[in-house]
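ok trying this again, last paste got cut off
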Amino acid sequence: MVNDTLEGNRIPRQAGTPTAGRLIDAVDGTLADFLTDQIVALDAVDPALGGFARTTRDLVLSGGKRLRPTFAYWGWRSVCRPGAPLDDVLPALAALEMLHTFALVHDDVMDDSDTRRGRPTAHRLFTAQHANGKRRGDPDRFGNTSAILVGDLCLVWADQLIARTPLPTATLFAVRAGYDRMRVEAVAGQYLDVLGETTPETWSVERALLVARYKTASYTVQRPLQFGLALAGITLPAVGDSFDRYGRAVGEAFQLRDDLLGAFGDPAVTGKPAGDDLRTAKPTTLLMLAHQLATPAQRAELALDPAGAVIPADGSGGPDLAAVIAATGAPEQIEQMIRDRVDEGVKALADAPIQSAALDALTALAVSATNRPA
């Protein structure tokens, strides 16, 4: 029993905990090995499928913070038995990164984004392949269709990775239940995000935060932590409740930082164009708060044209949207909301019966994940 190992309220620190870099290397190595096998299998069917799989592999391995596997790792390590081998859970941790690629690729299609992590997005890559190959039909349609299939394939591959995790059947059923809930919530949040762009005038700060909770907090922090806890095969309601509160608060703070970076971040650092959400009037918490705080003159500058985009849609001429938002004081309030949520998340772990190493790591992650330049 885990409770037998408690020292006061804290599980002792375990030896052999990997550094963040070693953990990411282990996850990336698992992904690379798995993807190599998939490329070989699809190559054998048709060389074009091998090329399709290679493009998908490159998208999966194109960098990123690997936050979801990291949170899941600490959810697992926080309560697992001493000496539990990392190899036993690596396929499941890697599955979360595959799920993340699915979400990013589809999100980029929906937002018609040009770059991700400083590189062309999936649909732009396939559009270029179509044009360079002088193929028949519409290059953009081919690009979007192919990118959707990339996302679908990553979703299937994520399932296969979970199935490869060498854990007892009962444990995998519990892991799968949490994983399915994570996926449903991510899709629900994404739909609300898309819906908000069609009716931004009906949105509010509270509803924007609801989108952040489901689109981002759930599948970035909250559910990965609980996913990791399920991998340990241990039921500890006190830990689950602490992770739930920590994950929701830190996950929302993560999205609020994303809102600020989308408006004010340096594209050379973020790897994404600045101001896309502003020009399309995506009702983020930042924009909703700016509308709430704006003077009548500022609100007029943030007005929508009849097509539903902030005037002007291409960002040329007209007001500097980021400057208008900054003048409302909304960014400072968002910064305070981030600090409040980080404090709330860290406090949620104060009495949780978890390893000292996990407490330290999750406290540091709460800060680093929400105060990042990209």
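PB: full thing came through this time. The CA atoms of residues 146 and 258 lie 27 Å apart.
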